[in-house]
Amino acid sequence: MAVASQEQTVVDSVGKQLYIGGEWRDGAGGATLEVEDPATGETLTEVADATPDDAVAALAAASETQGEWATHPPRERGEILRRAYELITARADDLALLMTLEMGKTLKESKAEITYASEFFRWFAEEAVRIEGRYAVAPNGAGRMLTMKQPVGPCLFITPWNFPMAMGTRKIGPAVAAGCTMVMKPAKQTPLSMLALAGILEEAGLPGGVLNVVTSSASGSVMGPLIEDPRARKLSFTGSTEVGRKLIEQSAAQVLRVSMELGGNAPFLIFDDADLDDAVEGALIAKMRNVGEACTAANRFHVAEPVAGEFASRLAERMGAMKLGRGTEEDVDVGPLIDEAQRETVTDLVEDARGKGAKVLVGAEPGDGRGYFYKPTVLGDVSPDARILREEVFGPVAPVTSFDSEDAAVAAANDTEYGLVAYVYTRDLKRALRVCEGLQTGMIGLNQGMVSNAAAPFGGVKHSGYGREGGSEGIEEYLETKYVAVNL
Ligand code: NAP
Asked: Which atom of ligand 1 is nearest to 244's Cα?
C-alpha cells in the first residue's frame, strides 16, 4: 500500500465499519471490501462488506428510532445540520483529499464538491423550521379544513460513485430536516466519503439510529430485502436508469414513495447569435466537470451551422491543452475515469462514432500511466446515427454536430429518452424563452454551463427520473400531507 503519509492519515481517520444504531461495527460475515485509487489501481484500504442481515439490522435501527426522531424539535434537527455544515467546511481539505483518492477527480474539483455537498446541510438546516400546514374554511362555510405535514418515515438511500458526498447530503439533509430516519448505501467504489460524513454527523449530535450506513459489494442482495420490507416507507435512488427501473419495480411491493435521479444525455445548444467566448467556457465546464462523469455532463453539442466549425476547433484547442494526471497533483486538470469498464464504454462510443464518419479533432485515445485515463476528446461531423448522441458517454468526450434552424435544434435536443438538463447559448431573449419552453428537460442552463445549486430544484423528466432534490421542493419529498376535516 504505497500511499504518502498525509494520504494515509486521511484514509486512516475514517471509520471502516458499518454504522448501525449509533454503533460502529463489523459486518456479520466479517468480510471486507477493497477501495481502490483509480489513478494507480492500488488498494487504498478495506471497509466492512455488509450482509443482508446487517442491512436488516440497519433498517430495524431506523424503524425503532423513527417515532422519537419525528418529534425531535425542528430547530434542533436544523442545528445538527448546521453544525455538520460547519465541520465539513472546517475539514474541507482533508475531505477533498479523501474524495480524490477514492474517486480520482482533481483536488480542486473535490473541494468544489465538498462545498456543494455542505450547502445542502446549510440549506436544509434553514428549511427544518419552515415545515407548515394550512387552516381553511370549507367552501360551504360550515366546516374547517386542517392540513399538516409529517415525516414520511424510514427512508432507503442508494447513491453513485461520481459525487460521493453531494449525492448523499442532498438526501440526508432534507430527511434529517423533515424528521425521517434512514439507511444509506453508498457506491462500492467510493464508500470512504460517506463513512467520513457519518462520523461528522455523529460528532454534530445526530442521535444514533437516525442515519445508518451499510457499505456492500452486493447491492442487489443487500438492499432488495429492505425495499420489500414494510418498515421502509421511501426509496431515493441516484444512479443509472437501468438500475432505477429495476428498483421502481421492486418498490411496487410495498408501494414505496420513490424519488429517482437517473441518467442524462444533456444537449448543449449554441445559436449563431451566442457569445462564442462564453459558450466555449460554458462548454468546458458542462463537459469536463468531474471528468465528464456527471449526470449533468453535456453529452452532445448542437451548434448553428455558421459557427459550428469555429466552436469545435476552439473547444478542441482548450481540451487538448488540459493536463491529465493523478488528481492529487497540483497542476493536473483531468483525473482518471473510475474504472476500466468505464474507460471501455468511452472507447467503444468514440470508435463507433469514428466508424460512422466522425472526425477526431483532438484526443480519442487512452492516457498514459497505470490509472484509467482517457484523453479529452472532441469529435466533429458526428453522424446522427452515432451511438454517442443517444447513450450517456460518462467521460471527457465532446461530439459536435450542426443545425440549420431553431426548430431543428430543439428537435435534435429532444430526440432522446432522457430529460435531465439542457444548456442553451443565445443573446436573443425571445429565442431563449421559446427554446427553454420547448426543451423536454427538468433543468436548463441558460448561458451558463452549470445548474447545480442547493437552493434550486434538481431533477429530471422522462427516463431521467422523477422527484426533486434541493430548493424548497427538496423537503417535500420527505413529507406526507395529512388532512383533517373539522366539524365545528
Ligand atoms: P449504478 O450502476 O446505477 O449504481 C448506482 C448505485 O446503485 C450504486 O450504489 C450501486 O451499488 C447501486 N446498485 C446497483 N445495482 C443495484 C441493485 N440491483 N439494487 C440496489 N442497488 C444497486 O450507477 P453508477 O454507474 O454508479 O452511476 C452512474 C449513473 O448515475 C449515471 O447514469 C448517472 O447519470 C447517474 N447519476 C444521476 C444523477 C442525477 O441526479 N440524476 C446524479 C449522479 C449520477 P454498487 O456500487 O455496489 O454497484
From this structure: 3
- Identify the CATH homologous superfamily for domain 266-453: Aldehyde Dehydrogenase; Chain A, domain 2 (3.40.309.10)
Question: 238: Cβ below 6 Å to ligand 1?
Answer: yes
- pTM for the complete prediction? 0.97
The DSSP-derived string for 76-96 is: HHHHHHHHHHHHHHHTHHHHH
Residue-wise pLDDT tens digits, 161-185:
999 999 999 999 999 999 999 999 9
Q: Which atom of ligand 1 is nearest to the CA of 420?
A: 41
CA distance 10 to 448: 35
The verdict on the CB of residue 292 being under 6 Å from ligand 1 is no
The whole-angstrom separation of Cα 163 and Cα 165 is: 6
Domain ranges in the chain are: 3-262+464-485, 266-453
Single out the residue of 248, 235, 289 nearest to residue 266, CA to CA: 289
Q: Which CATH architecture has domain 3-262+464-485?
A: 3-Layer(aba) Sandwich (3.40)
Q: Is the CB of 165 under 6 A from ligand 1?
A: no
Q: Which H/E stretch holds residue 401? A: strand 397-403
